[in-house]
Amino acid sequence: MAMNEFERSLAKVLVHEGGYVHDPRDPGGETNQGVTKKVYDDYRRNLGAKTQSIKLMTNGERDSIYRMRYWSLIKGDSLPAGVGYVVFDGAVNSGVKQSGMWLQRALGMTGAAVDGVIGPGTLAALRGINDHDALIARILDRRMTFLKNLKIWKTYRKGWTSRVNDVRAIGQAWASGSVGPEITFIDKANVKARIEDAKTAPTKGIADAATGGGVGSGALAATLQQVQDQLAPFSAGSALIGHVVAGLVIATGVLTIGGVAYRWYATRKKAELADALDKVPV
User: Fold this and answer.
1) So where does this one cross the membrane (predicted)?
2) What is the pTM of this model?
3) Which end of the chain is more exposed for a tag (fewer CB within 10 A), N or C?
4) pLDDT tens per residue, range 113-123
């Protein structure tokens, strides 16, 4: 019997998720077949059952969790072939909301519409897209940008990149009606990639201190300017003081220009990071 879209998508996700893992560096913590211990405990409590070792999770429990916690929330049955799998895999690895935002951004949605909730507005925008192959490429480009802006990117980039490449190949094949390639488990590709591990934007405090914008205006540039003003009347009668004043003028200018440049850099990097993490309307 042929598998439905959920079943064949789950089969691919399970290949990448592997079996039981307890990597202390993995933000997801103790995991079995992609299901975290926390998710499994919540699932059993909601059924009125006692919590137990995640190693005892049955295939039936696993499939039920994947359908309820991921597939249903991304409206998988309403998504086109290939697109559903791509969004599903992203939801499992980085959360339903994050994967939903990648889809929304790829659809060209902006502002408050990018909320990670796949509802009527998102589905309406999706119906206006005919090239699902290109849509999948945009979704996964957003995902890669997100991954590269996590603090643990250098540790897990090889596994994550290989996984995304596999998802791209399969998703685009399914979108065109093909079977797609066979895939195998990739070491570290199952590590959860969460927004909580995002890099932090550079602070503008250094620039503020240099240009006078710091707290209490205790800026270096202002201090140098005061010393320069106090020594200026004596510079005409002393070559040494004249050189000191000239040096202070140069130092004040360099410090101020450097502060302005760094503030521009910090502001730009903050905006780029926010965009990569889908934290602001664009």
Assistant:
1) 240-262
2) 0.78
3) N
4) 999 999 999 99
